[in-house]
Structures are given as structure tokens and as C-alpha cells.
Specification:
By secondary structure, this protein is α+β, with helices and mostly antiparallel strands. It folds into two domains: about 140 residues, Roll (Structural Genomics Hypothetical 15.5 Kd Protein In mrcA-pckA Intergenic Region, Chain A), CATH 3.10.290.30; about 40 residues, no CATH class. The chain contains six helices and eight strands, in the order ββαββαβαβββααα. The longest helix has 12 residues. Pfam families: PRiA4_ORF3. This is Plasmid pRiA4b Orf3-like domain-containing protein.
Length: about 200
């Protein structure tokens, strides 16, 4: 029997870059980690074009196709299918408020997100009808395939200096405009559609 639907608040922080990119979200504890992945792609600004996995303690939660690839290398013993793990189960396992897990995206660029449970569902019952929602955050997500934290630092250096020898090429690569402080909370919530992929 599934747990009663309750809101869970999470703070998501992208590690290893400055300025800090973070989001505070409220989701249903009935969600699977597959649903949580799709929503994280949306609110962070990723395009869902690379592998991902969640790390909870010593185990990993990932999509079935990624687990199958890991199995080819003989290392899938600690993996669980993200469609079969609920947010409620992990919140309970981590002891509620203050519990942490990681969300890894793009194993080449090695993006690591710190996910912190900020309050118990019972502490915010009025949000039950508003899930999912992004309630706050700051700064734009780095572009896909920028080269991880070091590549992003170089990217910001290039677009921030018109005299940089790579300035023009970098602007062409990104499409002409990138605001590292760009974050539109209203648009995130307005444009989200249930069941959509993370692609923006």
C-alpha cells in the first residue's frame, strides 16, 4: 500500500562551481525517483541528454538502461531501478530532516548535486496541493557539455571578457546569450507540465 501523499521539501545544490546554483523544491513523497529525476532536470535547467544516478548511502538508484550498462562491467550489485524506489522510502531511510543524498548527472562532466531534506512533510501540510513546485533558487545552470566545473569556469571567463581570444567562438557555441545569474522562478512553475521530460 503506497504511503499517504505528503509534500517533501528538498534543497538542491550543484557542487563545485561559483556562483552557487541551487533550487528549493517541494514534491510528493509518492513520487518515484524516476519522476524526481525528470523534475530535477526541469528546475535545474539540464537537457536530459546524459546518464544519471542517485547515490543514497552505499547504494545507487538509476534508470534501468543505465543499470544494464553497469552490469556489463560487473558493478551493478548496489543499484536499484529508479521506477521502483519512492521518495517516501528514501526520506524514511535517511531519517527525515537533514538527511542527504546525491544526484549525479553526465558522468563525463561529473555534475554532482547535493540534495538535502529540509523539513518533514507534516511541517508544511498546506503545500500538499501545490506539488510539485520550485519555491526559490538562484543562478543559471551551466550549459550542457561545457566540460564540468573547470570547463564552466573557463566558459564564464571567455564570455565575460570581450578581448578574450575565445570570446566570439564561445558566444557562437552557446547561441549568443548566457546570463549566469539568470533564474526565472515564475516561468519554471508556469511552464512545467506533468509527465514532461527534463528537456527545456
Amino acid at each position: 500500500m503506497p504511503p499517504k501523499a505528503q509534500p517533501v521539501a528538498l534543497r538542491i545544490e550543484l557542487q563545485g562551481i561559483a556562483p552557487l546554483v541551487w533550487r528549493r523544491i517541494v514534491v510528493s513523497n509518492q513520487w518515484t525517483f524516476g519522476s524526481l529525476h525528470n523534475y530535477l532536470q526541469w528546475v535545474m535547467g539540464w537537457q536530459d541528454s546524459h546518464a544519471h544516478e542517485f547515490r543514497v548511502g552505499e547504494r545507487c538508484i538509476a534508470p534501468d538502461w543505465w543499470i544494464q550498462e553497469i552490469e556489463l562491467d560487473g558493478g551493478a550489485q548496489s543499484y536499484q531501478d529508479e521506477r521502483r524506489v519512492s521518495v517516501a522510502a528514501v526520506v524514511r531511510e535517511l531519517g527525515g530532516v537533514g538527511g542527504e543524498f546525491e544526484y549525479h548527472y553526465d558522468m563525463g562532466d561529473s555534475w554532482v548535486h547535493r540534495c538535502v531534506i529540509e523539513m518533514t512533510p507534516a511541517a508544511w501540510p498546506e503545500l500538499e496541493l501545490l506539488t510539485p513546485a520550485c519555491t526559490s533558487g538562484e543562478n543559471a545552470c551551466p550549459p550542457e557539455d561545457v566540460g564540468g566545473s573547470h570547463g564552466y569556469a573557463h566558459f564564464l571567463e571567455c564570455i565575460g571578457d570581450r578581448s578574450h581570444p575565445e570570446y566570439a567562438d564561445t558566444l557562437r557555441w552557446i547561441g549568443g546569450v548566457f546570463d549566469p545569474k539568470g533564474f526565472d522562478l515564475n516561468r519554471l512553475n508556469r511552464d512545467w507540465k506533468p509527465g514532461r521530460r527534463g528537456v527545456r
